[in-house]
Specification:
The chain has about 800 residues and is α+β, with helices and mostly antiparallel strands. Strands 2-3-4-1-5-6-7 form a seven-stranded mixed β-sheet, with helices on both faces. The chain has a seven-stranded antiparallel β-sheet with strand order 22-21-26-27-20-25-23, with helices on one face. A six-stranded antiparallel β-barrel has the order 8-10-16-12-11-17. The C terminus is likely disordered. It holds the Pfam family RIBIOP_C.
């Protein structure tokens, strides 16, 4: 029987659309096992059920909780380093010896005192809490000591006054610590029990409100009795630790003891032996060691002596009487240290890092061979092709005559023939004519006359009148820069073509091209550059997390033998200053590429290398004095401290960044200096040394990048006024001063000028920082804010 077949006139109905969005099941049925291109090219993501998602989230929470607990248990335990606590009294009425007396409770644990110079410290061992603390102290007026010890402290204990909380010096110390980065901290109030009982509750309420501005949602603890001290110790032991990024990826050490062995050739230089606990990461003997405030050094050997402060002291049983036993105290451990001394590692000369900080430039490295005849002919033909212009000319016109015929939209200069514009043409071509000038350009500065200072009978005799005049002049220059940014006067004694020969014009500051390798200074032959700084930094940090480093592990008590150290380091340590050492990261010691002139080549030199560091900073609100660019400042960048004269520029996303003459308070700026390579993140603090020796906090920020190709472009604006105005042309005067034409210049505009308009000409040049890096920073005078006058003199701009 034949099957029925529908004819051509059969009605074809549209298939039913099951909604706009298909379900997962229908999509899989239609796909029939086929996968999309993106799914094939990427790792297939497993779709977990709701139960599996909850189970996975629970496992992640459990892992994070166990990691936090493991870190908390390791810090201060028998296998980890002691819990280092920095005690900072924030008011002059705080009694630091009384606080130490309460914390040194013999019933709580064993106390080992350690004093050198003016810095007091002690070790507290608590076997029943399974914790050991190392307490140190620093006064807020001693700025370098506070900042350096806060870099390595696990917890900072701030002592507050019950009535005022902190004084002006303590407030300044808090500003610096917040800018540098605070580790875990605790607030304790001393002296509440000394108040009348009726005023104690009110004092605590007022203090809590005052503290909320600096420390929101933080609990205040008391420190007046032994019971309160015991509660404070439990709080310190159970706190969650906050991490500082610049120290977690580096090995660092706080020196408990230091010995100096002078060399045979020179008594001023020798081997420094420092002992302490390894923190952060494992310490390798072949790495370079940076001692804060003293520079970079090499290590010869790492010893592993007996821990002088064990949480559970060793027990030795007598051979004659097995029932008798005695504990080895810390002094006995130190006495037996030489017998149990183990040499952990010795430096390998083939793998040890060098102390060379700069590239030795070769003046012939940037030279090129003379081009051949073929290359010259090719360049000549290319120049001819690029210079050909199509013009409509009458028949019979020669090529020479065609060069003088203007385009259809061109205008002839028939008007104003009495004004010679030769000087103007020379000025526009001055950059190409005087490119080879070797004379160093002097600094541009606006000169202005100031009146004599008026001194009344009540004027303080200690005030330096010359310094006051200079400060007043800086205030005037800052106000002028705010009202007339980048405007300069054309000099009368020097021709403009010479004064501005290194400048150029740009059609658009944002889009016009500028080669970053063009006309580099000689100092760029001494620095290093990464091919890709971000990728290198990411790779180094990944290796630190995954790769195991051979050396002293975290928590070990070790002795480092540091070679070629000046004797001043030990003298500084014996006077009471802390001795802190940081290990440098691999690529903070070596890179594979550098620049010499305009040429690039590869080198394989080692050492803490120098490069161009860019830092984003903001003006500190407590400082109102004007700060000019290229003025010497003191830098605290991560674990380094140095002096330099930086450039200031705008913080933008473009490839060119405008140079700023003053550190403004309304926006963040980028500071550019020559300094050793440091991987971000790292905090940045800028200080200025006053005439009285104190350091004032100028700005705070963070390290942005290590990039010599970041272009800082300086702009100067020349102003003139229209003298004669035509349709689209005007004669401008007072912009230049030339004999013959009196500086009058013909200019063509795209519109008509008005008589009250001002004509401006923008000129640009790239500027580079000066090589003013100095690792030596003098010790500041103890900071007292009341001694610094915060008054701003009135400036009469008329």
């Amino acid at each position: 029987m034949a099957a029925h077949r529908s004819g051509p006139l059969k009605q074809q109905n549209k298939a039913h659309k099951g909604g706009r969005h298909r379900g997962r099941g229908s999509a899989q049925r239609d796909g029939k096992g086929r996968l999309a291109l993106k799914t094939l090219s990427k790792k297939v993501r497993k779709d977990l059920s709701r139960v599996d998602q909850r189970h996975r989230a629970s496992q992640l929470r459990k892992q994070k909780k166990e990691a936090v607990l493991a870190e908390k248990r390791q810090l201060g335990s028998k296998d980890g380093p002691p819990h280092q606590v920095l005690v900072v009294p924030l008011h002059n009425r705080i009694s630091l010896p009384e606080a130490f007396r309460l914390l040194q409770d013999r019933d709580t644990g064993t106390v080992h005192l350690n004093e050198w110079g003016s810095t007091h410290s002690f070790m507290l061992l608590c076997p029943h809490l399974k914790h050991r603390w190392f307490f140190t102290a620093a006064r807020p007026g001693d700025l370098h000591t506070v900042l350096d010890m806060a870099k390595v402290a696990d917890t900072i204990l701030f002592l507050l006054d019950p009535l005022e909380g902190w004084d002006s010096t303590g407030d300044y110390c808090l500003s610096c610590l917040f800018a540098q980065g605070l580790p875990t901290y605790t607030l304790a109030v001393q002296g509440v029990s000394g108040l009348p009982p009726k005023k104690q509750i009110d004092a605590r309420k007022k203090l809590s409100k005052a503290v909320e501005k600096r420390f929101p949602d933080d609990k205040l603890l008391l420190l007046d009795t032994q019971q309160e001290a015991a509660m404070l110790l439990r709080q310190l032991a159970n706190q969650k630790q906050r991490h500082l990024a610049f120290r977690d990826r580096r090995a660092y050490l706080f020196a408990h003891t230091a010995d100096f062995l002078p060399s045979e050739e020179n008594n001023l230089v020798g081997t420094l032996k420092i002992s302490g606990y390894v923190r952060g990461q494992a310490l390798n003997v072949n790495s370079l060691l940076h001692i804060i405030g003293h520079g970079d050094f090499q290590m010869k050997q790492i010893d592993a002596p007996v821990d002088p402060f064990p949480l559970n002291p060793r027990v030795i049983k007598s051979q004659k009487d097995p029932g008798m036993a005695m504990e080895i105290c810390a002094t006995d451990a130190v006495a037996d240290m030489e017998e149990d001394l183990k040499v952990l590692m010795k430096a390998d000369p083939d793998r040890q890092e060098s102390l060379q900080t700069e590239v030795i430039p070769d003046p012939m490295e940037g030279e090129q061979t003379w081009p051949t005849e073929e290359e010259l002919s090719e360049a000549h033909d290319l120049l001819k092709e690029s210079s050909k212009v199509v013009k409509k000319v009458p028949k019979g016109t020669s090529s020479y005559q065609a060069e003088w015929i203007l385009d259809e939209d061109g205008e002839s200069g028939g008007e104003g023939n009495e004004y010679d514009d030769v000087e103007h043409e020379d000025f526009m071509e001055e950059e190409s004519q005087d490119e080879g000038s070797e004379k160093e350009e002097e600094e541009e500065c606006e000169t202005m006359t100031t009146g004599e200072s008026v001194c009344d009978d009540l004027y303080d005799e200690k005030v330096d009148e010359e310094a006051e005049e200079k400060m007043l002049e800086k205030y005037k220059q800052e106000r002028l820069e705010e009202m007339f940014p980048d405007e300069v006067d054309t000099p009368r004694d020097v021709a403009a073509r010479i004064r501005f020969q290194k400048y150029r014009g740009l059609k658009s500051f944002r889009t016009s091209p500028w080669d970053p390798k063009e006309n580099l200074p000689q100092d760029y032959a001494r620095i290093f550059q990464f091919q890709n700084f971000i990728n290198t930094r990411r790779r180094i940090f990944k290796e630190i997390e995954e790769k195991e480093v051979e050396g002293a592990e975290v928590g070990w008590y070790v002795s480092l033998h540091v070679s070629e150290v000046p004797v001043s380091v030990v003298e500084h340590f014996k006077r009471g200053a802390p001795l802190i050492a940081f290990c440098l990261l691999p690529h903070e010691q070596k890179v594979n590429e550098c620049l010499v002139g305009n040429a690039e080549f590869s080198v394989f030199l080692l050492g803490p290398q120098m490069s161009v560091l860019n830092m984003v900073v903001s003006r500190h609100p407590g400082n109102t004095e004007p700060v000019k660019a290229k003025e010497e400042l003191i830098f605290h960048c991560g674990f380094r401290r140095f002096r330099a004269s930086p450039l200031l520029s705008q913080h933008t996303a473009a490839d060119k960044h405008k140079f700023q003459r003053f550190l403004t308070a309304d926006m963040a700026l980028v500071v550019t200096v020559y300094a050793p390579i440091t991987f971000p993140p790292a905090s940045v603090l800028l200080f200025k040394q006053n005439s009285n020796g104190m350091h004032s906090l100028i700005a705070t920020g963070h390290l942005l990048s290590v990039d010599p190709d970041r272009m800082v472009i300086k702009r100067v604006v020349l102003s003139g006024h229209p003298f004669k105005i035509f349709t689209k042309m005007a004669v401008v005067r007072y912009m230049f001063f030339n004999r013959g034409t009196h500086g009058h210049m013909k200019c063509t505009f795209d519109g008509k000028l008005k008589s009250q308009d001002t004509v401006l000409m923008n000129l640009y040049k790239r500027v580079f920082p000066k090589w003013t890096y100095d690792p030596y920073v003098p010790e500041p005078v103890p900071w007292v804010k009341d001694e610094i006058s915060s008054t701003v003199p009135e400036v009469d701009m008329e």
